[in-house]
Amino acid sequence: MNSSSTSKVKTVRPAKRPVNRKSLLLTTIIGTLLLLGALILFMCIEKVPQGYQAVIYSVTGVKDQTKPAGWHIISPLDKAVHYPIRTQTKEYQNLNVATSDGKNLDMDISVNYHVDPTKVVKIFNKFGNADIEGLENGFLRTRVLDGLRQSVAKYSVIETFGVKTSEIKKATLDELQNNLTDQGFIVEDIAISSPKADAATQAAIDERVKANQELERAKTDRAIAEQNAAKKKIEAKGQAEANEILDKSLTNKIIKKQMIDKWDGKQPITIGGEGVIVDVNK
């Protein structure tokens, strides 16, 4: 009986609740909107690093109002280009230049500069959305090379390696400042390394340096000899003048007085073999 009654018991399962499709759809829409809003907000945030000024632009043009360092909210359709307004150092290596006597040299130059914050919009209008690295490797490099070439071209290879290095630096710095300041780039200072020449040019330079050293040594020796001769001439002239003055001053009275001063008191004084006596009292 128990077995038959057990077999007749049926398992009752709870009925499934109908899915609320409207609620699910609403949740999905809200989640999508929140995600889209977060994405748009992220796209609207613009961080300008310290020491930079940002120019904001879009397809409609550039904004006159720039952005300083910090966090800013901009339109998701806007973009930004950052320009450094504090000192930057850019090194250019192996710039080829020619001296006044036709020798080709390679020189390295280091440029300290910053962008004028009042002219960042002008820079953008001229160069578009090119970043500062692109400007350094393009526009600025060309100007630096031109300025260095013009300065070195005034001097010979020997002067470039030696006595005219300070003049070359000053002329290059002046040239860069004159050409770049109005463009919005303030060149603060430059450093120029020693020129590098090929083997043939270096050998020629060494020979000319040696010849110049020998010439300077010869000039120095000649100057010393001339000075010694002039000194001896002056000494001889002085001695002659002294003798002339002494001759004119030796009167008979002076000579007689000198003889008296040197007389030892013994009389008579015999001079010569014939017994001639000199009476000093006369």
Explain this structure:
The chain has 282 residues and is of the alpha+beta class. The protein has four domains: 36-83, no CATH class; 88-197, Band 7 domain (Tetrahydropterin Synthase, Chain A), CATH 3.30.479.30; 198-247; 250-282, no CATH class. The protein has helices at residues 2-7, 21-44, 120-127, 132-152, 157-161, 165-180, 199-249, 252-262, and strands spanning 45-48, 52-58, 61-62, 70-73, 79-84, 88-98, 104-115, 185-192, 269-271, 276-278. The strands form four sheets. The chain has a three-stranded antiparallel sheet with strand order 3-2-5, with helices on one face. A three-stranded antiparallel sheet has the order 6-7-8. A hairpin with a 5-residue loop joins β6 (88-98) and β7. α4 (132-152) packs across α6. It is rod-shaped. The model has no long low-confidence stretch (mean pLDDT 81).
Topology:
Elements lengths: L1 H6 L13 H24 E4 L3 E7 L2 E2 L7 E4 L5 E6 L3 E11 L5 E12 L4 H8 L4 H21 L4 H5 L3 H16 L4 E8 L6 H51 L2 H11 L6 E3 L4 E3 L4
Antiparallel strand pairs: 1-4, 2-3, 2-5, 6-7, 7-8, 9-10
Helix pairs in contact: 4-6
Q: Report the portion of residues in β strands.
A: 15-25%
The CATH class assignment of the largest domain is: Alpha Beta
The CATH topology assignment of the largest domain is: Tetrahydropterin Synthase, Chain A
- CA radius of gyration: 50 Å
| The CATH homologous superfamily of the largest domain | Band 7 domain
Q: Share of helix among residues?
A: 40-55%
**Secondary-structure element string:** HHEEEEEEEHHHHEHHEE
Number of helices: 8
Q: How many beta strands in the DSSP annotation?
A: 10
Mean pLDDT: 81
CATH architecture of the largest domain: 2-Layer Sandwich
Cα(first) to Cα(last) distance is 197 Å
Keywords: Coiled coil, Membrane, Transmembrane, Transmembrane helix
InterPro entries: Band_7, Band_7/SPFH_dom_sf, Prohibitin
Transmembrane segments: 23-43
Domain Band: 43-209
